[in-house]
Amino acid sequence: MQNFIPRFILAGLSGGTGKTIVSLALARAFSRMGKKVAPFKKGPDYIDAKWLGLAAGRTCSNLDPYFHTNDVIRSLFWHKSQGMDLSIIEGNRGLFDGMDEFGSSSTSELARKLNAPVILTIDCTKMTRTVAAIVQGCLSLEPDLNLAGVILNRTAGERHRSVLKKSIEKYTDIPVLGMLPKITHNPIPERHMGLVSDQEYDESDYSDEQAALDSLADMAEEWLDLDAIARIADNAPEFGPEPGPIFLDEPIKKHVRIGYVHDAALWFYYPENLEALEHAGADLVRLSILSDEPWPDIDGLYLGGGFPEIFAVKITKNRSILDHIKALSESGMPIYAECGGFMILCDYLEYEGKKRTMADVFPVGTAFCEKPQGLGYTEAVAQKDTVFYPKGTTVLGHEFHYSLCLNDTEAGSTADVEFAMKMVRGKGIMSGQDGLLYQNTFAGYNHIHALAVPQWAKQFVAGASAHRTKQSS
Fold this sequence. Notes:
By secondary structure, the chain is of the alpha/beta class. It has helices spanning 19-32, 47-56, 70-81, 107-114, 130-141, 158-171, 206-223, 226-234, 271-279, 312-317, 319-330, 340-345, 455-472; strands at residues 7-12, 37-42, 61-63, 86-94, 118-123, 147-155, 176-181, 190-191, 194-195, 256-261, 266-268, 282-287, 300-303, 305-306, 335-338, 346-351, 354-357, 362-368, 374-382, 394-401, 403-406, 419-425, 433-438, 441-444.
């Protein structure tokens, strides 16, 4: 297998410096040149990862030093990069920003784990010579970091660009790989959780999203030194010893059917979560809560995150599917729901002052807020045995939600609910708890990555198999 992996990490000094736009531009530009690009996103982001996948023409994987071990990171990156001409990893936040003063779980830490050169994107708004000091500071903070070049973003004109480039060349040995002008219009719209998902374009808009990505590639071809950037990737150090497989055990023959809702309302799924279920023996069936088409027979149900509030009117009118979900829960079927999926299982969803009825598996509601109600990495511990987690299991994940759980029914009384998880880090649903539990239905705000919780997929499939046996007896 391929030991040498052409690669680089694109980082920024902070969030909002334009590194996502530059990452999309480079992935699309190199893809248009005929290169097979493997896209990766550092951190737990779903939307940036989806757009990176679209730009590169293949699925994007997330790499996260918080909930992934070093072995998992190297294995996942290695195997997803095989047969590719170039691997692009988009960082998150600032290059050195982590969970503490030592930069743990930062983009720079990931760069060292992958022995990858770093290209730094710098927002140069209202700045000239100071940019050289910034680059010099980045070089000195972590001397073992392979800072291979910089891209100067949001430059104001030729004179501005000239002073910036000469300053960096005078005071540092870091090459300037391109200088982008300010763009008056972001071709990819944004909302509260970052870039708007491609899922929210209808099929007739597919050409629009492709045109948006092509316009970014055009910008890269005009303003960036793509040949120099490709050389940095090609000259990356050898990756090192071949890591083990992504999944350590042998795949199991498919023997249960697990449905997963994947439509414009719910689509936050790490590809490895679905791969893990298949590896554990699940035949996956794609479903929708926006269509009233009846669902096929399934043995388990996975409801990922997304934006159900945007489609609340359409969802609430689809009573047959909502009632079917409740019936599946009542039957004892294993149902696992994350964030947006949890909102679907509640009594109601309140958005823009209006309440819309949902599946009513849990006697609580959710209300969409203007500001985040939960944001960041999480750690939860199972307080009781469930079909998904044995008691005492520690689960590392993340949460990012603008909705708030309201523990009241339409009648105004306080609902009696059961929680399966205690939050050691993070907010969860309420009072430091997460994982609402009803029979074998488990729902919460916490998102997991299957490679960080290796028993999850096996437990899910085992529960689905037990349910299948029970239903057929």
